[in-house]
Specification:
The structure holds two protein chains of two kinds.
Chain A: H1 2-24, H2 29-53, E1 56-57, E2 60-61, H3 62-96, H4 99-103, H5 109-114, H6 123-140, H7 146-176, H8 181-191, H9 203-212, H10 215-227, H11 232-258
Antiparallel strand pairs in A: 1-2
Chain B: H1 2-24, H2 26-35, H3 38-49, H4 60-77, H5 81-91, H6 94-99, H7 104-113, H8 115-133, H9 143-169, H10 178-191, H11 203-210, H12 214-217, H13 219-225, H14 231-262
Helix pairs in contact in B: 1-7, 3-4, 4-8, 4-13, 5-9, 9-13, 9-14
Chain lengths: ~260, ~270
């Protein structure tokens, strides 16, 4: 309990640091926000194009697919605002050997590297996702049931954990192959596919996006939960699968840390 | 004149150096290529959509032709010179490049051109797949189309290269031009036909795309390749593409020449 409290305090401190350094560049907020809006358009326009051709695709109507895009935008905000900035700097630490300074600190190294940097202006994407949800449910002419919202929030938590676990795996790779920054681009480009409902994919792509790189778990399942279409069995399987992923990632990180040999000397 | 002769003599060597670099970092090279996977995802989606009948001029096999074609054109014509330029300008490593008796932009172009053969090699399996699976749509059997297509590839490469030089040269004025580049990437994804064929976009977006240079970078070569353009139309669009190339090149060179005078390298 005491350690938990200590880590909570540490987290608040790290967040405050990021906020302060973010505020130094507050003029960036406007162009950054604008870029976020453009990328929101990039996510939406293909969707509009597809549903212009057909009223429903693979069992999803346009507003239902919009809910998936909403989750995608929300997760992207989490990924690029809270997960990837910190973990990108780990790669830099490993390459330069400055990870030493983090390892000697009296706190868990994974915790420290994962909370090192947040990008506050990603709030724009966060707000954007809520606008999309509102729009989608207006089009459907109903509001989600509280129980469905609760399940969806639970799955969101799992989704964030899985996303984080994947990033930890990518970063762990940097202990073996140093040049890993383009792996993170690969990760980002694959994540982009999660703006589509999982059932539009068939065969190999479906298998990969459900089990290997579980995009279904990240956006489609929460969306289905919010729409009240997710069966309890799938929800539980998703939950367990997600937790298993996180456990594996933690083990891999600890092993990878064993391979760290600092630089120079 | 002498400078030009010198440049011509140095160019083959520069190309060899660039090629050696690509071979040295081959794992990275392959990862970058895997990053360009969006056309395959979009193809999967449109393939599912067109399962019960054609969408406009596109049936399933034409979607296959379009997206495989888009992937190949994208990989063969893409450069990433803006990254290098803004890095070089910011951390001062532009200084040694400026000292060489060769225009800096020429040496950048050689490095990037050198990657093209390797890219051809990587895309060749997909080219074979394209030839086998969507052959009836390809126009390359006709010499007129073949010629326009090849010229349009050269034009697309140059247009992308000079747009990137322009954005990179803005790093002389702005603290970081990479934000601008990100914006460019977003616009390019939609307006170049990379994600969705331009004629399948919502009306106003398609209209916008018709007046911007992005179409000349990707959609035009691909549409020529998969038989969505008539020959006179393709020749007309080739003219427009080359006008964009010349215009962008002039602006980029002006910005570069003015910017380089402001350049101050620190340290030493």
């Amino acid at each position: 309990m005491k350690t938990l409290l200590r880590y909570a305090r540490l987290l608040v401190l790290q967040l405050k640091m990021s906020l302060i350094s973010g505020m130094q560049y507050r003029a960036d907020f406007i162009p950054r926000g604008f870029i976020s809006l453009v990328w929101l358009g990039v996510a939406l326009i293909p969707l509009v194009s597809v549903f212009q051709a057909r009223p429903s695709v693979a069992g999803w109507t346009y507003p239902e697919a919009l809910v998936v895009v909403g989750w995608f935008t929300l997760l992207k905000a989490v990924l690029e605002g809270a997960i990837s900035p910190s973990l990108t700097s780990v790669v830099e630490h490993v390459r330069k050997g400055t990870l030493d300074f983090l390892l000697v600190k009296p706190a868990d190294a994974q915790f420290l590297v994962s909370t090192a940097k947040f990008e506050p202006w990603r709030v724009v994407d966060f707000l954007g996702s809520f606008a999309i949800f509102a729009w989608a449910f207006t089009l459907m002419g109903r509001v989600p049931k509280p129980a469905h919202v609760a399940v969806a929030c639970g799955l969101l938590l799992v989704a964030v954990l899985v996303l984080y676990a994947f990033w930890i795996l990518v970063v762990s790779a940097s202990f073996w192959v140093v040049k890993v920054d383009n792996l993170s681009y690969l990760f980002g480009s694959l994540f982009d596919a999660s703006r589509w409902p999982i059932s539009v994919f068939r065969g190999v792509l479906w298998f990969i996006f459900t089990f290997v790189f579980p995009l279904a778990l990240m956006t489609s399942y929460p969306a289905m939960a919010l729409l009240g279409r997710l069966g309890p069995a799938t929800a539980v399987a998703g939950l367990l699968g997600g937790l298993a992923f996180v456990a594996v990632a933690r083990r891999v990180w600890l092993r990878a840390l064993g391979f760290y040999t600092s630089a120079s000397s | 004149m002498r400078a030009l002769r010198q440049a011509l003599r140095a160019y083959p060597t520069l190309l060899r150096v660039g090629f050696a670099e690509v071979v040295a970092y081959r794992a990275e090279f392959v990862v970058w290529i895997l990053t360009t996977n969006m056309p395959f995802v979009m193809l999967a989606i449109w393939h599912a959509v067109a399962a019960d009948g054609a969408v406009g001029r596109f049936d399933q096999s034409r979607f296959v032709a379009y997206y495989l074609g888009a992937w190949v054109v994208r990989l063969v014509t893409s450069t990433w010179v803006v990254w290098e330029m803004s890095m070089d300008i910011r951390n001062g490593s532009l200084a040694p490049r400026l000292l060489r008796p060769l225009h800096v932009l020429l040496s950048y172009s050689a490095e990037h051109l050198a990657a093209v053969p390797m890219r051809f090699l990587v895309v060749s399996p997909v080219v074979v797949l394209l030839l086998v699976s969507a052959r009836q749509h390809l126009t390359l059997g006709e010499p007129g189309f073949l010629l326009v297509f090849l010229l349009s590839l050269v034009g697309a490469w140059m247009l992308i290269f000079f747009s990137m030089v322009l954005m990179g040269a803005l790093a002389f004025y702005l603290e970081s031009s990479l934000g601008l580049f990100e914006l460019w990437l977003g616009l390019h994804a939609i307006l170049s036909g990379y994600l969705v064929p331009l004629e399948r976009l919502p009306g106003w977006v398609a209209h916008l795309a018709a007046y911007l240079p992005f179409r000349s970078m990707l959609a035009f070569p691909v549409e020529t390749l998969v038989g969505l353009e008539t020959l006179p139309r393709a020749v007309h669009d080739l003219g427009i593409q080359w006008l964009w190339v010349v215009g962008t090149a002039l602006v980029a060179l002006t910005v570069w020449n003015r910017g380089v005078r402001r350049f101050v390298a620190f340290g030493g």
